[in-house]
Specification:
12 strands, about 375 residues, alpha/beta, 3 domains, Arc Repressor Mutant, subunit A, 3-stranded antiparallel sheet, about 15% strand, DNA polymerase, domain 1, single chain, elongated
Length: about 375
């Protein structure tokens, strides 16, 4: 992308880089001055009259921000900067409170306007939680929804992986500048996301990781999406922040229930008490969002889903043993007692069932039953 396509973009970038200027202050300055260039040259007194907090008032000569990082970054053809109020800026995001004035996009910017579902959850999920996130994302991406998340460890990564496996659309919203990837171990995943979707951030190039950036990221995740699905979350999880942003933005909130003994289910249960929609299958979400999915393109139609291995197409002995494994961690000794089989036989069958995706092993000699195709 070249700055020559819009001679005002440079002033927007400079103003956005002024320390302390967030979306609301940026909007106040544009409303007061008319253009970003005029705002940059305005007096301190005028900035105060525009509604900028005195804490962030600075003289015009102090507002000359270095935008060379953006200029270098924009030299790559896959890199773009979208301005609010201009063509290409996603309409859903533009309607939220404190919509970012600038969006940095690496990948296909048109996909930001594609119907999306946010999938978020714990950075340290259970095996079942990982499986659910990936399976839901794969099914929903095959059905035509873009899958949006935050590239974090755990549920976020599984959601992206599920969408990519379905050859669907996935978007990752970053809490840093797009010249870096956090966490670093997801650099390869980020590259795959860019090839099939896009990376997005409101933060200037060069911005490093900071705690305050994650809530800002979360409001964009929910703001881009038609709804937010929380897979697993503790009561203090950042995923609940995303869900609350979604609720404030008038978007749907979905939650997967879990065992009352699972701490990672408590955040979901809290959301359900607050009015989130309980989902047991991906079709529950498609029934709510399906009418909004009539978007032209290769991802419009629901594709045929390959059948997963379930109790109905499993050898009889394994299907019978599956009845004795709970949807919460079950001690292998309890499975042996319930089934009446020998320890050797149970261990052998559990290994085969795990390979077939029916159960997952947990630390300490526990097994958990996995759900069927979502």
């Amino acid at each position: 992308m070249s700055l020559s396509s819009d001679d005002n973009l440079e002033s927007w970038i400079r103003l956005w880089r002024v320390p302390g200027i967030g979306p609301q202050a940026f909007e106040h300055l544009l409303a007061h001055f008319g253009t970003a260039a005029d705002a940059l040259s305005g007096s301190t007194e005028e900035w105060a009259r525009a509604g900028v907090s005195r804490r962030y008032l600075c003289a015009p000569e102090e507002r000359s921000q270095d935008i060379s990082p953006e200029l270098r970054w924009l030299e790559a053809p896959e890199n773009h900067i979208l301005r609010r109020g201009k063509p290409g800026y996603p309409e859903r995001l533009a309607t939220i409170a404190a919509a970012p004035p600038l969006l940095y996009v690496k990948g296909d910017p048109s996909l930001l306007s594609h119907p999306q579902l946010a999938i978020v959850g714990s950075r340290n999920p259970s095996r079942g939680g990982k499986a659910n996130a990936r399976a839901f994302a794969e099914h929903l991406a095959s059905a035509g929804l873009g899958i949006t998340s935050g590239l974090a460890l755990g549920i976020d990564a599984q959601a992206h992986e599920g969408a990519l496996h379905a050859q669907g659309i996935t978007l990752a919203v970053a809490a840093t500048g797009l010249d870096r990837v956090y966490p670093a171990r997801h650099r390869a995943l980020a590259g795959r996301i860019v090839s099939e979707g896009a990376m997005v951030s409101e933060l200037p190039i060069g911005t490093q990781v900071a705690p305050g950036n994650f809530p800002r990221r979360n409001r964009i995740i929910s703001g881009l999406s038609l709804g937010t699905l929380v897979v697993e979350a503790a009561r203090q999880s950042g995923s609940l922040i995303t869900a609350r942003y979604a609720n404030e933005q008038g978007r749907e909130v979905f939650a997967i229930p879990g065992s009352i003994h699972n701490p990672l289910a408590r955040g979901c249960h809290q959301l359900l008490r607050e009015g989130a929609k309980l989902v047991e299958t991906a079709d529950d979400i498609l029934q709510e969002l399906g009418p909004l999915l009539h978007t032209p393109g290769k991802h419009e139609l629901i594709q045929e889903i390959e059948p997963e291995v379930t109790a109905s197409n499993t050898p009889a002995g394994e299907a019978e043993l599956l009845k004795f494994v709970d949807f919460e961690p079950t001690p292998v000794d309890m499975i042996i007692i319930r089934s009446g089989l020998t320890a050797e036989k149970v261990s052998s069958m559990l290994l085969i069932m795990e390979l077939n995706g029916l159960v997952a092993s947990e630390p300490g000699g526990y097994y958990i039953r996995l759900g069927s195709n979502p």
